[in-house]
Amino acid sequence: MLTADILSAPSSSGSLKSRLFGNKYKQQLKSPPQQIYALASETCKWSAVLKEIIDNSELLRHERKLTPILGLLLVHDFLLSRKGIALPVSHGLRAAVERHKARLTSELTRARLRRKAASIDVLRELVTIESLGEARLYPRWVRVNTLKTALQEQLDTTFRDFTRVSSVRDVITGSTTGKLLYVDEHVPNLLALSPTFEITKTHAYTSGAIILQDKASCFPAYLLDPRPEDGDVIDSCSAPGNKTTHVAAILKSRSPAREECARKVYAFEKDQHRARTLNKMVNLAGAQAITQMSLGQDFLKVNPDAPTYKNVGALLLDPSCSGSGIIGRDVMPTIHLPEQPGTTPATTKNMNGKRKREENDSQEGRQKQILVDDDGQELVVSSEKEMKARLEALSSFQLTLLLHAFTFPVARRVTYSTCSVYAEENEHVVLKALQSDIAVKQGWRIMARDTQVEGMRSWPVRGSPEASGGDREIAEACIRSYKDDGRGVMGFFVAGFVRDAGSIAEQNGDFTKSESRTAEVKGTKEHRIHVVEDPAVRNGSGARPKDISSESNSSGAGESDRESNDDDEEWDGFTD
Ligand SMILES: C[S@@+](CC[C@H](N)C(=O)[O-])C[C@H]1O[C@@H](n2cnc3c(N)ncnc32)[C@H](O)[C@@H]1O
Question: Do the annotations mark residue 256 as ligand-binding?
Answer without folding.
Answer: no
